[in-house]
Write a structure and sequence with these properties.
CATH superfamily of the largest domain: Glucose Permease (Domain IIA)
Shape: globular
Radius of gyration: 22 Å
Number of helices: 1
Largest sheet: 11 strands, antiparallel
Order of helices and strands: EEEEEEEEEEEEEEEHEEEEEEEEEEEE
Helix content: under 10%
Structural class: mainly beta
Mean pLDDT: 94
Number of domains: 2
CATH architecture of the largest domain: Distorted Sandwich
Strand content: 35-45%
Low-confidence stretches: 8-17
Distance between the termini: 66 Å
CATH class of the largest domain: Mainly Beta
Length: about 350
């Protein structure tokens, strides 16, 4: 006989955990959940850390979200479940929790129409044990629109491919800081939650000439990188080879080692911009220097954890192992569609788009 346990709704605001009969703990991450705005949609980029507090094996069967406006009216709902020949719940890569085990689940309902007021999101989770007993856990998230205090300019010039940004499928978005090898490096959060990889293109939208086997084949290799805003250099290193390598154990003491040659710049609002995979010996400034927006600070390289020449750019809270990513909007970008250039009003650069800076 199957038993269903319904757990009373318990709201949590940006990270207060929800318990289900001491069996399941669900905690939203990070502590502040932001609404990111594009020209056409709203984006919610956050995670759930789900811990099985029992000794039972539990399987996630269904996730449902209900969206409420400021008057607490239900305005939208959707779900993932195990119905059909290719069930949508399989889009969640980890669905089984052994006893006393924790897994990170990336919020699967990440995009909403711009017309919605996202005042509150209620999530319903259904787990089953080997005897098909079900436990239903309800949690809530209260997101808030991100208010950017610093004006950022995209730190490259010319025609640019947003090779990978931070949408649901992006590798920046899908950084599992609960993964044991990552935890051993003392990395506690997703510092690149809102990061970008930018690639310079030629006039025909090609990334490289010939076969792209050499760094110099890429049109971006050696191109100038500019300060996104006024700021003070917190960190600068430029002696790594452009050889696509980095020292993994060093990440525990210095998480910026991931980016090889790198500049970290603190801005007036306390946010920190990161410029990664820079070219060897190309840095124009050192730690402690004050830099003005638009000044050349380095060149594009392929140092650190990089497959090919590009600029890794992100905004984050600090440069420690506990840093969290922050959204960023750019004041100087147009979207290129064929021969047409269209201003990106929101300033959000999205994966796959070809843009140009003004």
């Amino acid at each position: 006989m199957r038993t269903v346990y319904y757990i009373a709704l318990l709201l949590f605001f940006s990270g207060i955990p929800t318990y289900a009969q001491n069996k399941i703990l669900i905690d939203s991450k990070p502590s502040s959940i932001f609404i990111e705005q594009s020209d056409t949609k709203q984006i919610l980029n956050f995670d759930f850390l789900i811990s099985n507090q029992s000794t039972d094996t539990l399987t996630l069967q269904r996730i449902k979200v209900l969206v409420f406006d400021n008057q607490n009216h239900l305005i939208h709902t959707r779900f993932l479940d195990n119905n059909g020949t290719a069930p949508s719940i399989l889009l969640v890569p980890t669905r089984n929790w052994n006893g006393k085990e924790s897994h990170l689940v990336f919020n699967p309902f990440s995009e909403f129409d711009n017309s919605f007021t996202l005042a509150k999101l209620e999530f319903e989770w259904i787990f089953s044990d080997p005897k098909e007993n079900e436990t239903v856990v309800k949690t809530s998230v209260i997101p808030k629109k991100y208010q950017q205090k610093t004006t950022y300019k995209l730190p490259l010039k010319g025609r640019i491919l947003v090779y990978d940004a931070h949408d649901y499928n992006s590798h920046h978005r899908r950084f599992d800081y609960n993964f044991e090898p990552v935890r051993l490096l003392d990395l506690k959060s997703n510092f690149m939650r809102y990061a970008y990889d930018f690639v310079i293109l030629d006039s025909n939208n090609n990334q490289f000439k010939n076969k792209g086997e050499n760094n110099s084949d890429y049109f971006g290799f050696g191109n100038s990188v500019y300060a996104a805003a006024d700021g003070k250099i917190l960190y600068a290193t430029g002696d790594h080879k452009d050889d696509k390598n980095f020292d993994i154990p060093k990440l525990k003491e210095n998480p910026l080692e991931l980016y090889g040659n790198c500049i970290a710049m603190e801005h007036k609002d306390g946010s920190v911009s990161i410029y990664g995979h820079l070219k060897e010996n190309s840095l124009k400034y050192k730690k402690g220097d004050w830099v003005k927006s638009g000044q050349e600070i380095a060149q594009i390289g392929v140092s650190g954890s990089s497959f090919f020449p590009h600029l890794h750019f992100e905004i984050r809270t600090d440069i420690t192992n506990a840093a969290e990513g922050l959204p960023s909007y750019f004041s100087n970008i147009n979207l290129l569609i064929g021969k047409t250039a269209q201003k990106v009003k929101s300033g959000l650069a999205e994966t796959g788009n070809i843009i140009e800076t003004k």
